[in-house]
Amino acid sequence: NPRVAPLLRRAIAEHPDHERMELHDVLAGETDEGSEHLRVDPGWSGTAGTGLDKTADGGQLIDLTVPVRTLDALVGEAASHQTGPVLIKIDTEGSEAQVLGGMTAILAGAPSVVALIEFVPSHLERRGTDPAELFAFLQGLGRCWSVDWHGPTAPLDEMPPKSGDVLIVPDDALAKALGLAGPCPTTRDRARRGRY
């Protein structure tokens, strides 16, 4: 969102680890070429996406053309030196599968993954993603937990029945440290990571 970029640049400049941060004015996707239309709500900085057709109150969106890059390409060589867990947060109003599809090298090289992914079936379907297929992929990354926007966290063995965030935790020790309960899949179980 170009309207938010100056604020992010200022926040990065003031951060103690600013030398380790880099902001890219791109849309994260599954290809490393071309551009896509990003539709931005002029009244709410948190609503921008490629699959939106109107604002929450039915208003007009601002249509911007933004270059598309994969996270694999943006992170590049640095990902091959990753020794610790990878932390992922994706909230792209339905393009979550496309972002994951552009980070296959990062995911393949990560010793473990902790992720918080927005999961809204209607948004996913608008972008051509089968929610059940995406959820199966997320289960391949680790144990899934529902993070209700206004309530408790609960383990997920099936696709979430309603919209919310999905937390993926790779092992029991971290789940316990986060105050979660229930066994996490073994490394062998996670080997079934599929498409995306």
What does the model show?
The protein is an alpha+beta fold and 196 residues long. Helices cover 30% and strands 23% of the residues. It has 9 helices and 9 strands. It has helices spanning 5-14, 71-75, 77-80, 96-101, 104-109, 121-126, 131-141, 172-177, 187-190, and strands at residues 27-28, 35-40, 48-49, 62-69, 86-90, 113-119, 143-147, 153-156, 164-169. The chain has a 5-stranded mixed sheet. The chain has a 4-stranded mixed sheet with strand order 1-4-2-3. Strand 7 and strand 8 (153-156) form a beta hairpin. It is globular, with a radius of gyration of 17 Å. Residues 186-192 have low confidence and may be disordered.
Briefly say what this structure is.
This protein is an alpha+beta fold and 196 residues long.
Topology record:
Layout lengths: L4 H10 L12 E2 L6 E6 L7 E2 L12 E8 L1 H5 L1 H4 L5 E5 L5 H6 L2 H6 L3 E7 L1 H6 L4 H11 L1 E5 L5 E4 L7 E6 L2 H6 L9 H4 L6
Parallel strand pairs: 1-4, 5-6
Antiparallel strand pairs: 2-3, 2-4, 6-9, 7-8, 7-9
Report mean pLDDT, rounded to a whole number. 86
Q: In angstroms, what separates the terminal alpha carbons?
A: 24 Å
Order of helix and strand elements from N to C terminus: HEEEEHHEHHEHHEEEHH
Arrangement of strands in the largest sheet: 5-6-9-7-8
Annotation field: number of helices: 9
Determine the structural class based on helices, strands and strand pairing: alpha+beta
Query: Which outline best applies?
Result: globular
Q: What's the number of extended β-strand segments?
A: 9
Q: Proportion of β residues?
A: 15-25%
